[in-house]
C-alpha cells in the first residue's frame, strides 16, 4: 500500500477488471499460441485454461463493482481453491519463448495476488 497502488474500492476493482480482461483476451491466448508454435502442448493447455479463469475473475470483479453503487447486486461467495504444491523440476520448454512466458506468468500472478490482497484489506476497512 505504501507504493501507492491501492485506491478507492471502485478504482481498485476497475484496475482488477482491466488486468484480468487483458490476461483473458490478450496475454494468455497469446502465450497459448506461442506455446503451440514451440510445440509445448502442456503449456498451451495451461495457458488456455488460465485465460478462461481470468475471464471468470473479470466477471466477478465486474459484479463487485456494480454492487458498490447498487445494493441489490449481491457479490457471490468466491469459490474455494485448493493450494497447489509447486516442486522443483526441469524447466518446461527450455530455450523457447514459451519458457519466458511461463516465468512472466508466474511473476505476474504473484504480483496480482499481492495487489489484490492489499485491495481486499482496503475494502475490509471501508
TrEMBL record:
Residues 7-62 form the Rubrerythrin diiron-binding domain. SUPFAM superfamilies: Ferritin-like (SSF47240). GO terms for molecular function: metal ion binding; oxidoreductase activity. This is Rubrerythrin. It comes from Pedococcus cremeus. The lineage of its organism: Bacteria, Bacillati, Actinomycetota, Actinomycetes, Micrococcales.
Amino acid at each position: 500500500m505504501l507504493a501507492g497502488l491501492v485506491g478507492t474500492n471502485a478504482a481498485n476493482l476497475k484496475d482488477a477488471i482491466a488486468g484480468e480482461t487483458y490476461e483473458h483476451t490478450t496475454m494468455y491466448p497469446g502465450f497459448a499460441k506461442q506455446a503451440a508454435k514451440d510445440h509445448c502442448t502442456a503449456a498451451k493447455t495451461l495457458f488456455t485454461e488460465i485465460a478462461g479463469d481470468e475471464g471468470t475473475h473479470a466477471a466477478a470483479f465486474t459484479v463487485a463493482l456494480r454492487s458498490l453503487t447498487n445494493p441489490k447486486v449481491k457479490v457471490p461467495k468466491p469459490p474455494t481453491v485448493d493450494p497447489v504444491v509447486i516442486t522443483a523440476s526441469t524447466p518446461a520448454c527450455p530455450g523457447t519463448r514459451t519458457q519466458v512466458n511461463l516465468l512472466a506468468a508466474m511473476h505476474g500472478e504473484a504480483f496480482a495476488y499481492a495487489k489484490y490482497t492489499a485491495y481486499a484489506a482496503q475494502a475490509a476497512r471501508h
